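During the no-cost extension, the postdoctoral fellow (Dr. R.K.) reprocessed legacy sequence entries with the updated structure-token encoder. One reprocessed record is reproduced below for audit purposes.
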Amino acid sequence: MAEAILMPRLSDTMTEGVIAAWHKKVGDIVKKGDLLAEIETDKATMELESYQEGVLLHIGTAAGGKLQVNDLLAILGKAGEDITALVAQHSAGAAAPVTAAPAPAAETSAKQTPAPVASAASAVLDISSLEEVVLMPRLSDTMTEGVIAGWQKQVGDTVKKGDVLADIETDKATMELESYKDGVLLYQGAKAGEKILVNDLLCIIGKAGQNITDIVAASKNIGTAAPAAASTATAQAAAPVATVATVPVAELVLNEGRIFASPLAKKIASEKGIDLRFVKGSGDNGRITKSDIDGYEPAVAATVAPVTSTTASAAPAPAAAASAKTAPIVSVPAGEVSFVDTPVSQMRKVIARRLAESLFTAPHFYLTMSIDMDAAVAARTKINEVAKAKISFNDMVLKATALSLKQHPKVNSSWLGDTIRTNYHVNIGVAVAVEDGLLVPVVRFADGKSLSQINAEVKDFAQKAKDKKLQPADWEGSTFTISNLGMFGIEEFTAIINPPDACILAVGGISQVPVVKNGQVVPGNVMKVTLSCDHRVVDGATGSAFLQTLKSLLEEPLRMLV
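Re-encoded structure tokens follow.
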């Protein structure tokens, strides 16, 4: 049976999308994972992959055309299948556009008098075409499923266009999902903390008292939404009983009067029974964010973490897993095997997949160089005497890297299979550690920015990353990546290339070591950097020349001003 593909909501503020390009044309065979089209949103141009198989029978608009979220984007089905009724259903009875694939004459005549029962069954099963249905949108270019971080509207609440329905955790950020229709929230496809696949039933918004039994039943029959109650009951039945022994002590009141906190932080704190007066906020002006709640621990003299023995194989509940992650003291019986299973987050799944693909696909080789940072240390001291914001060594490394890439564009390249793309613009990704893994926001056109501009941008990105407020436009389009572990006391390390970049620079800390200058052994400040290169794109001589330029800029910082 032919299936309609609706325009997905690809960003938290998207209301319509422009078809930048079609990668399949009417009549082409489409497989799961095939690239259907490139869609330009208000934030970025994203690739839309097919989540079903079939023949492309219809496209909603040609390249350059606009479609509203949930408008008919395409139809996939069997070759020659009659889709007139399906097209008319999504175009308010209008005649099928010329983009529909013509059915053979024999097929058409055979399908002109379909049985009423079959039509009714199709209407019930095709929940994606119903006006009341809201499907899980694809909120990032790599998203395959989302986790309900929290519902902002409950069943029975009145919903207006623009109201925030829920907070959805993707593999890269937590985004607010706004409603694009008016009505009453009649059904939720999952509870907070549960997962929903992209294009599965998220919720139903309709008229008060409307019968939604058939819609919910259809979603279960085609496997688009698991009943929330059943999954909750299963989780409760499987969860082992854990004993947490705590000795309470007096907590320090950090917030008095009006407490500034995000709506999501307030909701999670309420569910966990956390008093916001005792939570230290890491946001602007001390604002409490979700990450502050997730990392909060009540003041206790000792905490005994949940212990799972070898006889209990069920995974712990999310709250238990979260507390186990940060518990400072774990007491277990001597001689007994104990462990805690933590569910893999969306972000960690994508990190695992992308970096495994990179390491086992791209032939890596590594070049390490020691850099004399005496002049950089002296220059930074003088710069910070007049700078409004404190310039870091990371800012100086980023600026020097950007200028070096301008001189060595082969290092600033990407492997695209049949071609190598040499980038003459410099967009540097900066690896930022967050609770669930790693994000790489991008400083665009870094070669043309001052140290102060780079400093402000990196700090802003770091805070957004920790608050899970980065948007797709913030992490797309890097041409080179820097990973700096110097602040953790790491002297040197190797990093895995962040595709599609051809190289990544691993930066260690500055160490005071004996060095030979003018024939004498004197103390010196030395920093080691390691360049990981994709040998399909960059050769050893090319990478070495880049590092020599980087070394000369950092050892004589005034050259960065020329």
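The chain has four domains: 3-114, 133-237, 246-338, 348-561. The first helix runs from residue 84 to 90. The remaining legacy entries will be reprocessed before the final report is submitted.
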